[in-house]
Serine/threonine-protein kinase PknD (Stieleria maiorica), 1202 residues
Amino acid sequence: MSEVDRRDEMIGRIADEFLRDCRAGCIPSIETLVSKHPEFADELRDLLPTLAVMEQVKLADEEEDSDHLPAADESMVDRTLGDYQIVREIGRGGMGIVYEAEQISLGRRVAIKVMPRQSSWGGTQRTRFEREAKAAARLHHTNIVPVFGVGQAEGVHYYVMQLIVGQGLDDVLDQLKSIGRRSADQIGHRSIWEHVGGGEESEQTDQKPSSPSSGAAPARSGSRGGTGSSTGSSIDPYWRNVARIGLQVSDALHYAHTQGVTHRDIKPSNLLLDHRNDVWITDFGLAKADDDDGKLTRSGDILGTIRYMPPEAFGGRSDGRSDVYSLGITLYEMATLVPAFDAVDRRELVKQVTTGRPLPVSRVNRQVPRNLATIIEKAMECRPEDRYASAGKMREDLRRFLNDEPILARRATLGERCGRWARQNRGLAASLAAVASLLLLIALASSGAAIYYFDQEEQQRRLFQQARSASNANEQLLHELEDALDRSRQATVDAENARQTAERESERTSRSLYSASMINAANAMDQHRGFARAQELLDQWRPTGHRPDRRGWEWFYIQAFCNQHDFILDGHDSEVHALALGPQQRLASAGRDAQLLIWDLQSRQVLRQIDSPVGPLNCVSWDGPRNRIAVGGSKGIAVYETTTWKRIYLSPSPLTIYALQWSPDGRWLARIGRAPASAGPVPHYCLLDADTFDVAQELPGVLNRSVQFTFQIDWSEDSRLLAYPAKKQARVWDRDAGQLRFETNKSWGELRAIQFHPTNPNEIIVCGRDGVVRLWDWNRQQIVTTMMAHTHAAAAAAWHPSGRRVATASWDGTVRVWQSESGTLLRTLHGHERHVFNLQWDSIGEHLFSTGMDGAIKCWRPEAAACRRELPAITHPVSYCGFSPDADRVALASGVGALILRDTNDGHVLAEAKHGRCRLKAFDFSPDGRRLAIVGGVGTVYDPGLLRVWDSTFEWPTREIRPDATLRAVDWSPDGKWIAVGGDDGSVSIFDPNLQPCARTIEREPGSIWSLAWRPDARELAIGGIRSGLRVWDFETQQTRRWHQPQDSVIDVAWSRSGKQLAVSTSDNLIRILDAADLSQIAQLPRQFETVYALKWGPGDRRLMTIDARGTLLLWDPVSWQRTLKLTVGSGGVRAADWSEDGEKIIAPRDNKIVIWDASRGYAAESSDPTWDQPFRASVRALKPRKIAPGPVGSRPMAPTL
């Protein structure tokens, strides 16, 4: 047995003997037991008094129980005690009876407390009565009931107090509980007294005297009336009243403690609220003075009301922190309207107080302000050392709360609370640990046994069910009639039909909701700060265990729009106002959470976190050559050395900093800031000496009174010129000459940022509140370029290291990249939920970092492919376009014979071919992507029909055919064996890849062939045309099936990828879905405004794409046939579009350019391809050819127009 176990066993034996003696009526003295066992003195003094209270006995050291007052003497009403005429009895307490009386000599009403003349009262009670009067009389505080005098008449001891008009706090709490929490919250700007008492006199009990309205009012101290907080405080008036009461009581207790008096019986009934809502402390019957001789309160005495007693009081110990605890328990009851400990039984109540903890305030009443709850819980901690060290400390936190200032107390963490509970309940904690271990072992053993018995039970159940099923079957065969069986079958059929109908309706409803959500998300992309709304709608449709995955291409496209960034650095708790790029791939970020974070861009981890000594941060600047970094905040400037990260400077006076920038040579620090009026004249714009940080030069300019956020300033490369915004003017300051070199002569709005051109110091970029970005040649004093696209203020600008591009950040939530010379908008980056404040290029100009009000630092690669991008095509409008099977290339054809092959991602030319005067109509890649079949011509002598097969580098054609008629349609069979072509003369021909005619022929019919489509298994060919309708030709049998439809002009036809359906576009602007087996109509889409020229099924047949002549591209759900997405090319005359085989990209022509909508980033953001897409993509990747080098034409990469 360990030493601790032996010690606990000995203490347990002593406690058992003590309890046996108590129950036998022979109560031993605690000090006697302590003297016998001095090695356990501390433990016995803590334990034995508590056991005595739980046994409801008196300790042997006590004389008498003072908790009960003897029966009243004969009535003293209308009697005279000395100079006092008794008027009426107003209360009884443990130490005497309180009467209202009139002082005859002065004619004033007072309260007089009389000690009864029962013989049963011993010397201890009389001494305590006298001590109460003396303790109260020695205290002169405006929140303590003053004592006017003490005396004895006719053998009656009494003392005289001020008569208070009011109610006891316990009565107020009772009334608040009766009217309910909701009504208490609605007290509004009235005081608690006005709400429950209305200023009327009410009869008090115990130490709660009432006074007439003519009673003298004492002088008010600083703890009354208010705290100096503004009337515009955000704190609810009820909680202000609670805090104000706590402030007055804690102030009075602090005063009493400084005078050497501990009250020891703080509770609601000993606190009086007068008609001014001021609180008075009364009843000092249990008060203890520092000069107490120790005879009245010996070690082991338990005095006070159990519900409000601190745990240490049960061991006979008390000090000022005990009063803090009782006040905390009282405020807890005021805040929650329930007692902290609610046991009725005395033993259970003692156990709760000594070993339990009240429920946290926020769990009982969530409306209690967090700081007020923290103060209350701090005051009522079980251990005295965990509470406020004094009532003055508690008073200070209550004052801070009322003034809307941060409090000094902090909420205990979960670990601290668990540790405190374990220290308070060591035995129970150890028992719980042992029980938990035992339960774990039992659970493991039980699980094994349960699995075994479950298997046995399952086998028995199956055998039983088999036997019962056999018995029921035999009984049914014997007793059921044929008509019952028929009715049962019919009911089953009806139920199944109803179930299927309900499932179909549920499916249709769910798909309709999805379609509406995607339309709204797509619309949100074009709205101001629509990123957050679009992402919210997307997140609603992520697949879960009970909901199927309804996401189509549109979901991943919008997801790509919302995830255009490369990565996010997330470490701040609030908005970030500034970024600074440092050496060695490091980035500094300064936030309004008063944190300076140093990031390693390679690992994307925080290298160092520095708490700001200057409050919330507005700006940061990195001096790389001299290894310094400066931050500015709402309280000044701090400078750190970046090798040791020691602070080398802190501004001595308060100063709000809006911009800081080191000069390139590190000798100067430019500053924009403002000091409070009390600090005297401080320049708003100035240059600081980088060694002494004294003001070296004052710059002209005055800040607006209502400055928002931060500014951006910049030095020229030679550290001679400084560009800075001054209200609505841009200025350039010559440091050497000490004068302005330039200021704009026009004003458009408050300016926010100015940056020098990295290679041309005569040019500056200027942006401000009007959202317009202007490039100024300040030397010639003229605007070079104006860039307009932002819808809100342009807050910052950052030059690309090359100087050819500039990036701007705006409060509209976007980052835009411009071509600096022409002012062309190259790229718009969405991804911030609110204002964007700052941005920074990396040293090589590959990555762009931005940050803003959402606190996120996002990294972009503007050169990377955008989710929507335009590629320059050719000098003439594009007549046809399409992807290669691997989607890495895109081919473009024009009506003047040009055919170009471009890289899908960056748009540079891979190959180019010319066809003279031939007007190209269509083309199609071979399934392996190595060859390209093109058709065209107009059927004249100068431009006959054309069929040509190129290799994918356009270096040489295999062969060409020049028929007389125009060839308008071409389609390569999925197996790569045949090429089908159709012309305006109604003919359809089949060729092999070498353009040798196929032995199988298709009968020519009147009309013009506009569309050809092989079935995915290459067994059938769908043929559509003007005035020729739709027919399906079987390759093996050479039989033709026709679609019987009054409208016989078919514009385009497309097989579903399963080969089970056909989508047909007709000249009446309708799109019909046919069953491929019998060409019967399955569905019809709503009539379009224009003719639909292109149809394409997506992967897995989950979507159907259509595009009309006006360039409106739509995606349709093939189950509900509702539109899931609408995209606009932006021009008319569109007759082609394509969907890549991998399902990630869609392409359509726009005049002489092409538009690519790319959802690949959306798929990548989900970390895996959708399940419906994986098998098809696997097959595409298996066929993916080797990368083909670009041909001699266009070998120089061309930058795409983003």
About this structure: The first helix runs from residue 3 to 23. DSSP finds 20 helices and 66 strands in the chain.
